[in-house]
Design goal:
This protein is of the alpha/beta class. It has helices at 7-10, 23-32, 56-62, 75-88, 125-138, 154-168, 175-192, 198-212, 215-222, 232-240, 262-272, 276-287, 309-312, 347-359, 366-373, 382-393, 418-423, 443-451, 458-468, 474-490; strands at 44-48, 67-72, 93-97, 111-116, 139-150, 244-249, 291-298, 316-318, 322-325, 332-335, 341-344, 364-365, 398-400, 429-431, 437-439. The chain has four domains: 3-152 and 229-298, Vaccinia Virus protein VP39 (Rossmann fold), CATH 3.40.50.150; 154-222; 309-400, Outer Surface Protein A, domain 3 (Alpha-Beta Complex); 418-490, no CATH class. α6 (154-168) crosses α7 (175-192) and α7 runs antiparallel to α8. The longest helix has 18 residues, at 175-192.
């Protein structure tokens, strides 16, 4: 498709930072598997199909010593991204418009991390092939590639829903109206079927995801011309044909995943042996998996699939938990921002969380933690490694290879990320230095965020906020300043 005809030029696809594509996340997963990826603070990153650079821009801002490159077929979003780069004065990021089928790849050099998010399954097969060629040509010997895609077998179910949608809107041309009418039709189908009907439940599940997306995002996700789900087997076979190998998924499976069940492990070992890809394919049948975020490395790398204390000691840990008294005497409850909670009375676990909670949002190395936890019962023996991997998979602990430039505390003259201040008031979300997003719905918070350029102390902030919001009492404004600063600090939006 010619760039001028690309739907991304006429229908803006919402761009966001994707935490699992950050080189810190990619490096951490590589280290966990025994590899030696490039240091996050001194690497080269390429994003294929980068849209407006909403994923790369916060990376480049937070890691000024690394180099970032992104290209996209659509020129309009690239222009939007270039404007933001100019406004932020970023010298380590280049976005450009290009057709990857005719791209001079050699001129780009090699990259330590290559990202293809939301690309492989939504483009013609010849473009997907070209993507894999670029992985093979441009990835450094210790490089890591990230590719997300609609997966089989669950992708077949999505294909069924997509075909219903396409048939219903075949006479409608305007993209957002096509998506709105598709949603309305699916709502009708759901309401017309019995409550316990399996097809109703399937459609309803996907409909709920669609209703949370913008019409523009839904159009690109569901109604594009190309839509090619791939199984993990097909993806890895394709990668192997270009000198690559399956490393892992971008994150560890959640604790309720079938991979942890004893009877499932027994079945996998008896039918697949040590073939990790065959095991993952069988697991996808159990999961009816619809989507994957897969990491690839060079085929000659030696991958350690048994998580070890040695590899964990090369990483840093962080946790956004907030603790409170538990129901049982001597226990504590730990809650993460997603709302999940766990209770523990184990002295080692409580000591670990105490250290990480006090240090948030900055990570701590295990080499730093172990002496502090000596005598608490926390040890990196086999049992300790299993416990830590469980906490990581449950998202109560995150692993890192790099420390984001976040503040260790709220200073007298707090400064928010320039990326966040630039986006405040123009988008619903602002990026954090942890490569997450903070939703900005409140006008008071949006205006307060814009003031945090490091030149104002509490007195100056109070004066400015009272001028902008005279209807608020001084007491309420003071309290709002403190609560907002704590929110932004814990989100990882305040700079060191």
């Amino acid at each position: 498709m010619h760039a001028a005809q690309n739907s991304h030029n006429t229908v803006a696809y919402p761009g966001f930072p994707y935490p699992k594509t950050h080189p810190d996340s990619l490096a951490a997963m590589a280290i966990l598997h025994g590899l030696n990826p490039a240091p996050v603070e001194a690497c080269r990153v390429l994003e294929i199909g980068c849209n407006e650079g909403a994923n790369l821009i916060p990376m480049a801002y937070a890691i000024p010593t690394s180099e970032f490159v992104g290209f996209d077929l659509a020129g309009v979003p690239i222009e939007r991204g270039q404007e933001r780069i100019h406004d932020l004065g970023l010298a380590n990021l280049r976005l450009f418009q290009a057709d990857m089928l005719s791209l001079d790849a050699a001129a780009l050099g090699t990259f330590d991390y290559i990202i293809a998010h939301g690309f492989y399954a939504w483009v013609p097969e010849r473009v997907g092939e070209r993507m894999m060629v670029l992985f093979g040509e441009l990835l450094t010997p210790n490089g890591i590639a990230f590719v997300s895609y609609n997966a089989k077998p669950g992708g077949h179910l999505r294909m069924m829903i997509r075909e219903m949608m396409l048939d219903h809107v075949r006479d409608i041309e305007e993209p957002t109206r096509r998506m709105a009418e598709s949603i309305a039709f699916l709502q009708f189908l759901v309401q017309s079927r019995p409550e316990d009907d399996p097809t109703r439940l399937l459609i309803q599940n996907q409909l709920e995801h669609m209703e949370k997306r913008s019409l523009e995002g839904g159009f690109h996700d569901w109604l594009t011309e190309a839509y090619h789900p791939a199984s993990i087997t097909e993806l890895v076979e394709h990668a192997r044909s270009h000198g690559l190998e399956y490393l892992s998924e971008a994150v560890l499976p959640l604790p309720h995943d079938p991979t942890y069940r004893a009877e499932v492990r027994s079945m996998l070992e008896s039918t697949c042996g040590g073939d990790i890809v065959r095991q993952e394919q069988k697991l996808d049948y159990l999961r009816a998996r619809m989507y994957r975020e897969t990491l690839l490395c060079r085929a000659d790398r030696v991958i350690d699939r048994d998580f070890t204390a040695e590899n964990l000691r090369r990483l840093m840990l962080a946790s956004a938990v907030e603790s409170s008294a538990g129901d049982k005497p001597g226990s504590k409850v730990y809650t993460i921002p997603a709302g999940f909670r766990m209770e523990s009375h184990d002295a080692g676990v409580m000591a670990l969380f105490a250290e990480l909670e006090a240090n948030w949002p900055r990570p701590m190395s295990l080499r730093e933690l172990e002496p502090r936890l000596s005598g608490t019962g926390f040890r990196l023996d086999n049992e300790g490694v299993t416990l830590l991997i469980h906490l990581i998979s449950a998202k109560f602990v995150s692993i890192h290879a790099w420390c984001a430039p976040v503040a260790a505390g709220i200073t007298t003259h707090p400064r928010a990320s320039a990326c966040a201040r630039l986006e405040a008031g123009t988008r619903e979300f602002a990026p954090t230095l942890l490569h997450g997003m903070l939703k900005l719905e409140d006008a008071v918070l949006i205006n307060f965020l814009k003031l945090l350029d490091g030149t104002r102390d509490r007195t100056a902030l109070l004066k400015q906020m009272q001028e902008q919001f005279p209807e608020l009492t001084e007491e309420r404004t003071r309290a709002g300043i403190e609560s907002s600063l704590r929110l932004l600090f814990r989100a990882g939006m305040l700079e060191a």
